[in-house]
Structures are given as structure tokens and as C-alpha cells.
Amino acid sequence: MKAVKAIYISKTGNCIKKNICYNNEKRLELSEKNREQEERGMEIAAQLYTVRAKTQTEADIAETLRKVKEIGYDWVQISGFGKCSPEFLRDEMEKNGLRACATHTPLERIADDTEKVIAEHKMLGIPYVGLGYYAAKTTEEAKGFLKRIIPAAKKLHDSGLQFVYHNHFMEFARMENGQRVLDYYIEQTTPEEFSLLPDIYWLQFAGLSPEKFMKEHADRIQVIHLKDMKIDGESGERRFAEIYNGNMDYDSILKTAEQTAVRFAAVEQDECYGTDPFESLRISRKNIRERYGI
């Protein structure tokens, strides 16, 4: 299975680090990326963290991959797995006609065992090496994180893979200098070093417009996480929901994702509140197909 190499572009009219504005060449690259994406289409994947209770043994992983394919997914993201060999995972995905678009890989493995991570991802044909989060609250902590991850991220990129950072809400808290954590990461890095895996739910939770964020950072985004948000009528608590079963504007979100040439949109539901997580994945896949047409 051949790995998909990311193509990085820059949005016209924005400015990058050192205040260098994107030029006509970048506009052409964006047009080319959009043409390529239009030909391939955005793929809907299942983020298997949703069913993490059923991915802790090889027997459960095999059954989970079978069920996910049966539900209607052709792509998955590997996350929250127990111990299994890359060879086993490769064989089970091939058996079920599944491909993996990305992983969530621990920081320690990415930074300290980079060559092995590269070899595993290449064996499995997975183009994006994701980090679930890093809890930095100060500029010193954020600087230390970049110092640790960037050498590995450069090796990943040189090998044809791509590091992607997945956000929650904490990356949009402001540090002691008034800057948001994720803004600092973006300011200090290039898309080749530090791409993004935006979680659409957490963007909205943190008070951002998911559509605006995807447009502003299109040069760093090839994979996103989809999850919906609903409100508990009694407590007012924000809760996770199946796509189109909550209050987020998923027609607009999916349209923007396609317009900005997102390659993979992975459905994830952190908590299902008593519903079988496989059923939640099924509902989301059915809703996206019936309501949006992909």
C-alpha cells in the first residue's frame, strides 16, 4: 500500500512567519491542490478511539475492523489500541479492505523511536503521524515541546510522512505573554514541520469558527476530526453527539473542508453515553451520506 505524500500550499492573502506574504506561486499551488482533491474526493474515516474499549487485544482488533467495514467505512484512524504487531494490523486491514489515514502516536515514540515509527507507518501505508495533544501552559513549556518534536517531525517529512498535531481546547488558552498556545506553535514552525489535525468539536468548544480556522490554515490541514455537539436540557452540559444529531452546522463545515482540500475527515465520538459506540459510528456515517452526500 503506497503512502500518500502531503502537498503543502498556502492560502492567498495570509502572511506567514517573518511577515512574508504568500505570492502568486502559492496561489497556483492552492489551485493545483484543489484540483487534485476534487479528483480524489474527501474520504470519511472512522477514528477508532471511539471504540477503544474494543481494541485492546488482537482478537478484539480483528473483530472491530470487521464491524467498522460492515458499518460502511473504508478508512480508519488508528488510536487507543492495545498491543498488537504492525504485521497483524496490516494483515487484518487488508483482509477487511480497510486503509488507515493517520495514527495517534505517543510523543515518546515519535521523538525517541522515530525510525521505528517511520518503518511501521510505511509498512501500514499510513501517511500521517498524529500526536493527540501536549499540555503546554507557558511559553517555556511550548518552546520545550517544539524543541523535542521538530527534529522528529523533520525526519518524518523527509521520509515522505507528515507529523500532524491534534488539538483540544487547551491549546487556545493564552499564555503569560498573551499569545494562544497553538498560535505560538504555528508562528514558530513551517507546515512541513508542524501540520494540524483540527478537531472540529474542540475548535467550536473553544469559541472559534471551524470554517474560518480551516480556511486560515489550509496549508497545514489534510486531516480533520468530526464530532457534533449537543446540549443537555437539564444541566446545560455540552455533550458529544453523532454527526448531524447535534447543533453544529455540518453542512457548512463539510463544505469548507472540501473547499480547502481536506483529504480525510475522521468521525470520532469521545463518549457515547450508553449507546453502543459502533452504533454511534454507524449513525454518523449514515447521516453524512444521507445529509451531505459523501
Output the CATH class name: Alpha Beta
Low-confidence stretches: 1-28
CATH topology name, in short, is TIM Barrel
Helical residue percent band: 40-55%
Distance between the termini: 23 Å
Q: What is the name of the CATH architecture?
A: Alpha-Beta Barrel
Q: Class by helix and strand content?
A: alpha/beta
CATH superfamily: Divalent-metal-dependent TIM barrel enzymes
Overall pLDDT: 90
Structurally, the number of domains stands at 1
- Largest sheet at a glance? 8 strands, parallel
Strand content: 15-25%
**Rg for CA atoms:** 18 Å
The global form is globular
- Helical segment count: 11
N-to-C SSE string, H for helix and E for strand = EEHEHEHEHHEHEHEHHEEEHEH
Give me the count of strands. 12
**Strand neighbour order, sheet with most strands:** 8-7-6-5-4-3-12-9
Topology:
Elements (H helix, E strand, L loop, with lengths): L14 E2 L3 E2 L2 H17 L2 E5 L10 H14 L3 E4 L7 H11 L2 E6 L2 H6 L1 H11 L3 E4 L7 H20 L3 E5 L14 H7 L7 E3 L2 H6 L4 H7 L6 E4 L1 E4 L6 E4 L8 H10 L4 E4 L9 H16 L2
Parallel strand pairs: 3-4, 3-12, 4-5, 5-6, 6-7, 7-8, 9-12
Antiparallel strand pairs: 1-2, 10-11
Description:
The protein is α/β, with parallel strands linked by helices. It has a single domain (20-292), classed as Divalent-metal-dependent TIM barrel enzymes (TIM Barrel, Alpha-Beta Barrel), CATH 3.20.20. Helix content is 43%, strand content 16%. The strands form 3 sheets. Strands 8-7-6-5-4-3-12-9 form an 8-stranded parallel beta sheet. The protein has a two-stranded antiparallel sheet with strand order 1-2. The chain has a two-stranded antiparallel ribbon with strand order 10-11. A hairpin with a 3-residue loop joins strand 1 (15-16) and strand 2 (20-21). Helix 2 runs parallel beside helix 3 (86-96) and helix 9 packs parallel to helix 10 (250-259). The radius of gyration is 18 Å and the shape is globular. It starts with 14 loop residues before the first strand and ends with a helix.
